[in-house]
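Hi all, long-time lurker, first post. I run a small reading group and we've been trying to get comfortable going from sequence to structure in the token notation. Rather than ask abstract questions, I figured I'd post a concrete chain and ask someone more experienced to write out its structure so we can walk through it together at our next meeting. Sequence below, copied exactly:
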Amino acid sequence: MALCFTAAFDLRKDVLPWLRARRAAPAAAGAPGGGADVLENNYESLRVLNVERNGNIIYTYKDDKGNIFFGLYDSQTRQNEHIYTFEKDLQVVSCSVNNERTLLAASLVQSTKEGGMNELQQGSKCLTLLVEIHPVNNVKVLKAVDSHIWVQFLYPHVESHPLSENHLLLISEEKYIEQFHIQVIQEDGNKVMIKNSGHLPRDRVAEDFVWAQWDMSEQRLYYIDLKKSRSILKCIQFYADENFDLMFEAPLDISLSDSGFKLVNFGCDYLQDQEKLSTHLTLCVFTNRTGSLCVCYSPKFDSWEQITYSVFYFHKGHSKTFTAALESAASHVAKGVTFLNLDYYVAVYLPGHFFHLLNIQHPDLICHSLFLTGKNEMIDMLPHSPLQSLSGSLILEWCSGKLYRALLNRSYLLEFLWNTCLDYEKMAVLHCVLSCGSHPQSLEAQIIQWVSENISACHSFDLIQEFIIASSYWSIYPEASNMDKLLPYSSVLTWNAEIPGITLMTEEIALPFMKVHSFKGYWEKLNSNLEYVKCAKPHLHYSNSVVRREWHSLISEEKTGKRRSTAYVRNILGNAIKVISNLEARNLEPRLTPLFQEEDNHQRLLMGLMVSELKDHLLRHLRGVEKKKIEQMVLDYISKLLDLICRILETSWRKHNLQSWVLHLDRCGSAAELAVFHLMTRILEATNSLILPLPPGFHTLHTVLGVRCLPLHTLLHYIDNGVLLLTETAVTRLMKDLDNTEKNEKLKFSIIGRLPPLFGQKICRLWDHPMSSNLISRNHVKKLLQNYKKQPRNSVIDKSLFSVEFLPLNYFIEILTDIESSSQALSAFEGHDNVDAKFVGEAALKHTTMLLGL
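-- Answer (accepted) --
Happy to help. Here is the structure in token form:
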């Protein structure tokens, strides 16, 4: 299935054997709670109460006398520990243990004989107790009220030494939250006692709220209060000391006035989570380290024909409301929509009906999210019991007491890539796989294999472009924040195609109002995202438009023989050398394809220009990042681009079992070589439109394959339309490897005739043939006559100078001789291999006789 659930804790496997061992232990052993009469034979009352920040899990069960046993499972040592026993028949509402395991806070209510909470009994109270448990000592009553109370110790980042003060949150059903400050002292060695237990200082944190969520990992409290029927989301950040700040306020366009009181992640509360899950709204807040802030909201279900839910992307300034049609409305289940936080993604699913994987990092285009219907086996394999998304990627299944670590299942997603025929699913799953972090070599090889074999299968986007851009982006994304604003993550700018079964409505939303002015960590990144949206900055994604202009300018200068400062060009080519060296250092295995075996200055210029422009772009916008790190990021990014192109070609080369003799032009190409040629053509099309560099030698190999595999008219058509680029290496090999048969002469003449003048003159000298002499002569005459002005002539031709009586040619040669005799003309044509009027005359006669068949 798309999600991989790795068991981190199982109540039945990690706790039950320990409990049974304690039961079997002799009563004389003196273990707390030991003895055959302490535990009941079945453990139906065994359940998880809370998961603390350090991963420790608190659980409880009742013995046959109704006594409540509290235990703790240490996630680091994987050992169980007895904490405390209440020798009364009570029902636990909430409980928490401080970081040092010296204090237990618990909220309990009286139970009926049937085991349920007796909320109707006269005088029934909810007792909130603070217990010294190291060693077991005093019990202090914090609250004794009729309403329900939830408790949660704060866990500061400082864990190197025990703290002298603990902080406890107390959440009341009367819609207020307090923070208790509990000072402890040590006596008689390790004995911990509460100092001044008669009066514990406390602060009012929040009041008049209707919903609250606790983020244990980041020590944040989200809550919603109602102001004039408006839902206002607020967040409080707690620190290691007793201080806390209200970080932001954000209006939510949802109505909670008639939804009752709801808590999220304050332990397991069966009063709220066990019943009527499908008829209550679902609301949760998800964040990640990149500064994203998402509020996921599913209202009460009105019907089972369709399900509607909304996601407020506050870090992007808009919300999206999704409506999913249910194909099997008659077979509904009494469970609500589940939202799970998966870092860059949020999973939304309804067991047996649909599974959506929403891209929260790049939510603008719907094609970057995955939408599956209930007929997919992936959905059937998801847990049907209620799940709670905890901090990070932890998922708790309250009913079974199992704690999972949920990750995207890359192997399944790869299999899905091979099987799906829909473009939007290919796009979404490709991004899912690439976002999973560093890719093992075998996994990346599978992605490249899929890309190389499905290049023509996508009609809505260019698969090569999408893969190269997305993979290069994710390869350096973790190196710095704000990278999603500075580098393109997709080649697709718009997507208008509908997705069957999904209706989407996008709306702008009001941005959170930050209440503090000093930001660190996550808050700095969130504020940066909000400022980006608020200021409506121009699109900051790197563009190759400047590189395109400069590259074409440098190539034009080269063709005309003019070139700007050699120091400038040397610096650009030096950048290219760094890229190739970086690429070679990262890839130690030899390549099968004959690339990087020539200079190819055009590609090196493009490579070097891209290094220069991309480095300047990142230096302008990446604040606080060292210049050396940015330079290395740029080299890694461009090296990754080139490596991906090489590996796509390498995969096809290996598949068709091609050898190095492909570069020989004296034999015809095979069907396998033609397939590789077409693959290279698609790579060329993809990179040309994005102005991305190609590995040196790519154009030579492409041309050689074209000469071997294509008929002449098709080959020339490819050359004339810029599909094939004639490199000096390829044309030189063509002139030397092919003999002078009629077919080859026609090919060579056609190729030479299409070369730029300076390039053509150089190549013509490699071909000892009348055709070559003719071309050399033409170029020589063209230059001589470029500025020639006809003058009156009275001279008589000296026929003794010419071996053939051919008056038009003789007269023309005389004109050339006169021009060559001038010192100005001679100096202009120095170094032309002694090409003169006599050479031109001989070449013309040879060519004429050849054409006439004489």
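A couple of things your group might point at:
The CA atoms of residues 47 and 540 lie 51 Å apart.
Residues 267-407+497-520 form one domain.
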